[in-house]
Write a structure and sequence with these properties.
mainly alpha, globular, disordered C terminus
Length: about 475
């Protein structure tokens, strides 16, 4: 594509136009096609918003497993008219574009990647002009709303707006649990300058007490001003929101927003290797082991994404670390759906400039083929007599998932069992490929020079010494 195209006005205009086209197309498909463009989750959101507008609990709507705050935000969808019903889709699409703007300014910022405008726009276009991103938000998935908060959190930390970062972190975790994994990496990255002595300066000789990892001096140095502000502000925001919601909605708020996800059994549209096991648990709960897999699956997931990766990588590159964390969280999650891919896609523009997948194109092509192929493999277990979804349905889906979701269509709409061997084997292969890709991502980040986030006062130009 010509470099003349990459101006802010053209790229962002194209991003907005792309979403408008999808929104209008969605109205047509919903009106004339048996297969609806609008995501079923959006119907859940709008039903919950309607209950709230009537003074009732959003949890009157079955399967609403989110904070009431989301239903409050979407109250306009309960107002009469097609325009107001689409309010949430428009909001999510706008959030996509705003998230792209944050990506753009972080890539340009001296504290970020310090790219030129043209180069920053090219990488930001990975998100802004991605039809998968536009499709998911305009179908009514709320992931765009969370994406803008997560990338705004990265911007706030990068530009050292720590109080704002804490508020955004607390709000993000309240809206959807998974952003809590970023807390460890952000805290670990917020070093004091004295904790990272430049090479041309001599570091002070530590005393015997300082050498102990749990000495008083070491602990006091760890809890510097920035870390304390981040921890306190995020906790206050998170706890305050939860207290307000609990005061209004009592136990159902805790059950549906948080506790449900610990023992969640969801085997529909699930790329996870746990898919078949969850199906067996839901189909015959009395015949499975008393050891609840759905309650234990999060242990390796949290250990890798929230502990090991932050400790190993966060002082190298915070944005890359957040990508690795999210990729690991999704890959090891017991439920893995298309929307979850957006969770780590938002960080790709920050990682790709130094990625091995771009430095070695053959490696990148191989990874793409394997990532796609492990989802397409399931095609081989489709019986020849089965009908197929319409072209309109496939066009609204991410291309590499069309065949996987074709199989889901046969399972859910036609009632044909496709769990073994198709879904089970492809789930294992998909997981293996994800782990291989994650290993490359971690290796790339580990090769970056350690670069702790500077304080604002430390970013002033130094006077030249003779």
């Amino acid at each position: 594509m010509s470099s003349q195209y990459f101006t802010p006005s053209r790229v962002f205009s194209s991003a907005i136009a792309l979403r408008v086209i999808f929104l209008l197309y969605g109205l047509l498909q919903d009106a004339y096609s048996l297969f609806k463009y609008t995501d079923i989750d959006y119907m859940v959101f709008t039903d919950a918003a309607r209950y709230v507008s009537q003074g009732l609990s959003p949890y009157e709507r079955e399967t609403y497993r989110y904070t009431p705050l989301l239903a409050w935000i979407l109250i306009p969808t309960s107002w009469p008219g097609t325009f107001w019903f689409s309010f949430g889709k428009v909001l999510f699409a706008i959030s996509d574009v705003v998230a792209g703007w944050f990506i753009f300014i972080i890539l340009q910022a001296p504290e970020g990647k310090a790219m030129t405008t043209e180069r920053a726009l090219k990488y930001a276009s990975i998100w802004l002009l991605n039809p998968m991103v536009a499709t998911i938000s305009t179908r009514g998935s709320s992931e765009g709303l969370l994406a803008v908060m997560v990338v705004a959190l990265l911007w706030a930390v990068t530009t050292r707006r720590i109080l704002l970062a804490g508020i955004l972190l607390g709000l993000s975790v309240h809206l959807k649990i998974y952003p809590f994994i970023y807390g460890a990496s952000i805290v670990w990255s917020l070093e004091s300058p004295s904790d990272s002595t430049p090479a041309h300066q001599s570091s002070p000789i530590p005393t015997q007490n300082d050498q102990h990892p749990f000495s008083i001096n070491t602990i006091l140095r760890f809890f510097n001003h920035s870390r304390i502000v981040l921890i306190i502000s995020s906790l206050i925001t998170f706890i305050s929101l939860n207290l307000v919601m609990y005061a209004i909605y009592s136990t159902p708020f805790l059950q549906h927003t948080f506790f449900y996800h610990l023992a969640r059994i969801d085997h529909r549209h699930n790329f996870s290797p746990y898919n078949t096991l969850l199906h067996l648990s839901s189909a015959a709960p009395d015949k499975v082991s008393s050891l609840k897999l759905e309650s234990l699956a999060f242990i390796p997931q949290i250990a890798i994404s929230a502990v090991l990766i932050p400790i190993a990588l966060s002082k190298k590159d915070l944005a890359g670390t957040m990508l690795a964390q999210t990729f690991a969280f999704v890959a090891f999650n017991k439920v893995c759906t298309s929307q979850y891919f957006l969770w780590y896609l938002i960080f790709l523009p920050f990682y790709l400039p130094y990625s091995s997948f771009l430095s070695f194109p053959r490696l990148g092509i191989l990874a793409l083929i394997l990532w796609v192929g492990t989802q397409v493999r399931i095609l081989f277990c489709i019986p020849s007599h089965a009908p197929v979804p319409t072209h309109a349905t496939i066009l609204t889906l991410k291309p590499q998932q069309a065949l996987w979701l074709h199989q889901a269509y046969r399972l859910e709409f036609l009632g044909l069992s496709t769990f073994v061997p198709g879904l089970f084997i492809s789930g294992l292969l998909f997981f293996a490929v994800n782990v291989w890709i994650l290993g490359i991502v971690i290796d790339d980040i580990s090769r970056q020079d350690t670069k702790p986030i500077p304080r604002k006062e430390d970013t002033k130009p130094l006077t030249k010494t003779q």
